Amino acid sequence: MVFIDFLIDFLKDPLTVLQNFLSVYDTLTYLLVAFVIFVETGLIVMPLLPGDSLLFAVGLLAASTGKLEIQILIPLLIGAALLGDNINYFVGKNFSRVVKARQRILFFKHEYLTQTEAFYEKHGGKAVIIARFVPIVRTIAPFVAGAGSMRYRKYLLFCVMGATLWVTSISLAGYFLGTNEWVKANFEKVVLGIIIVSVLPIVWHGAKAKFSGPGKH
Questions:
Q1: Cα 64 vs. chain centroid, distance in angstroms?
Q2: Which positions ≥6 away from 154 have C-beta within 8 Å?
Q3: For residue 136, which of 4, 47, 65, 76 is within the disulfide window of CB 3.0 to 4.6 Å?
Q4: Rg (CA), the chain
Q5: For residues 53 and 158, what is the distance between their CA atoms, to the nearest angstrom?
């Protein structure tokens, strides 16, 4: 019950939870954020964890509190994301039939899987990079890559590029904006803006495909 309450609070307000955790446990915060990033990317059943807002929050806290070092956070979280991705890939490669047979497992819905498969068919290898910036899709994408026909060497290349761009860009955004009072007071709006910008490529391609239609190029 305590863990569930903590998880709900974390989903609703990751910045406040991290601030409280940092004030009590200090450098153990590194392990907490690395664990969350690993779980979000590595466990297909946990697609709702706040990856974008978490990265922005730790960058903000690194700048505003001085208790976290951005030079440690970035490589640590890239490593956590890569570890999660690769575990998820091989789970997909070996257990895709079992997962596909279930309509729902914890926070995972079967429709997430079919949507991500369509996303891969549309964008190919670059989908691994694009998916990294899209909530829910980034959790399902490694699994779909493993369950599909994408060779591991090709997947790994795009995986490293995507994890590096995702962690670096969003955590540095939080770091450089972290001392801005408006940003700290409007954390949820800023994160929502990041998410909207992240999904714009998918919205654009979807609208383009819809309105172009057969024979319209």
A1: 23
A2: 125
A3: 47
A4: 18
A5: 23
